[in-house]
Amino acid sequence: MSKPPLPPEAVELLSRPNPCVMATLRSDGAPVSTATWYLWENGRVLINLDEGRVRLKHLRRDPRVTLTVLAGDDWYTHITLIGRVSETYEDKDLADIDRLSTHYIGRPYPTRDRGRVSAWIEVERWHGWGEMKDNDQAGG
Fold first, then answer.
1. Residues 9, 52: contact at Cβ < 8 Å?
2. In angstroms, what CA-CA distances link 37 with 21, 29, 50, 70, 137?
3. Residue 92, CA atoms < 13 Å, CB-side half-sphere
4. Own/partner long-range contacts of 69-76 (Cβ < 8 Å, ≥24 apart)
5. Distances, alpha carbon 98 to alpha carbons 40, 44, 85, 91, in Å
6. In sequence order, what are the residues at sequence separation of 6 or more whose Cβ sits closer than 8 angstroms to the Cβ of residue 42?
7. What whole-number distance in Å separates Cα of residue 81 and Cα of residue 125?
8. Which residues pair with 21 in a beta bridge?
9. Average pLDDT, stretch 17-33?
10. Closest to 38 measured CA to CA, from 23, 58, 52
């Protein structure tokens, strides 16, 4: 696995509104994965969670997280980001979820009656596959 910074072609892929799967750890250590929106910004990842979601509880207990971003037009090409949540805060005015929603669906987030929490993920390692295969992988 490689360490940041990521090469320009990986940053370009991460800058698009691609499908993404996030894995967190339950209290018994079992991994749990779920689809999520993300935003790549200055070498970090912004995610936003409904305040009632179990994955928020997981991240508060254990900040380790993995995100796998699939190239929207070629699922074989993907980048996995491994890191930890370094910051969480209440998204009081829903500005962060609106940014994510606009990035993915072109308009502000439609559900306005539930609290949201933003989280920044610091990337510690990464690996790519397909068109994004990095040279630090075995067989790279």
1. no
2. 8, 24, 12, 12, 27
3. 1
4. 69/13, 69/14, 69/18, 69/19, 69/20, 69/38, 70/18, 70/19, 70/20, 70/21, 71/13, 71/18, 71/130, 71/131, 71/132, 72/16, 72/17, 72/18, 72/19, 74/130, 74/131, 75/19, 76/129, 76/130
5. 15, 18, 20, 10
6. none
7. 6
8. 35, 68
9. 97
10. 23
Around Cβ 102, how many Cβ atoms within 10 Å?
Answer: 14
DSSP letter (8 states) at residue 8: H
Give the helix/strand (H/E) hosting 119.
Answer: strand 116-129
In tens, the pLDDT along 59-84 reads 999 999 999 999 988 989 999 999 99
- Mapping DSSP to helix (H, G, I), strand (E, B) and coil, where does residue 57 land? helix
For residue 55 the two structure tokens come to 């994955």
Written as six digits, the tokens of 94 are 């829903």
The pTM is what?
0.93
What residues have CB less than 8 Å from 41, skipping those under 6 apart? none
Residue 124 contacts residue 139 (beta carbons within 8 Å): no
